[in-house]
Design brief:
434 Repressor (Amino-terminal Domain); six-stranded antiparallel sheet; 6 helices; alpha+beta; four-stranded antiparallel sheet
Length: about 290
Amino acid sequence: MEETAAPATATAPRSIGERLRAGRERSGLSIAAAAEKLHLDAKVIEALEADRFAELGASVYVRGHLRRYADFVGEPGAEMVSSYTARDARPAPPDLTQVPHADRRTDPRRLVTPLVGLSCAAVLLAAIWWVLSGSHDSNPEATVATTPAPVEDGSIAPGAATSSAIPAGKVAAVPAEVPAKPAPVEAKPKRDAPTEAAPAPARETRLRLVLTNDSWVEVYDSSGARLFYDVASAGSVQSVSGRGLRVVLGNAAGVTVEVDGQAREIPAAAIDGEGARFVVNRSGSLARAR
């Protein structure tokens, strides 16, 4: 009697990539078709299905792509992200070296010390020149002072003169001329130098991000304080207020930007691949972050 063989059971996919690939194949989609519908590069989908998560960059970007693709092919996105987090227990921090920073200005106080030194040297040179130009050498020639000679009755004979008592071999020293002090010059009243108006501080801006797709979002203010830093899910609205806002988006095509209630289009120069980096100007317009 022949034994009936038990039907072979299909082995369920075990890895994250195998489950994603199986879900896509159940939907009857090719990699190219799935990439077109999600507005992603086909290499991203290939890396996800091959468990090559290191090719997708930082862990936060991997979680965003993983959740979005899993929901698209009918797999539980939250469970996929949890599996990836358990696999990568120590996620690498995101590379924020390219995040724009405010330009550093030269501190004008650094120029004070050289200017004070030059001013003191100029004053010293002027004082030396004034002393040298106003001084005179004493007259080395000796002069003999003469006084009218007195007559017997105590009067002085006109035209007569006697030598003053000066020891032999000695002459009377003539005092050196003392330079006359220049007349004081009336100081003209100084006019107040025009003061440069301090730059007006950046006004506070209300930023509103409406997400049609999942996207990684980072928002910083002018002081570098982090106002938002997470994966924002599709259908959510993120509102942030601050001064001098700088924004980083992981999926620019899935985010609509509003500034103070006005819709703003992300400039093409600020888009880099799928992401975008831009700043909000004082006028409320968007510009590429340097």
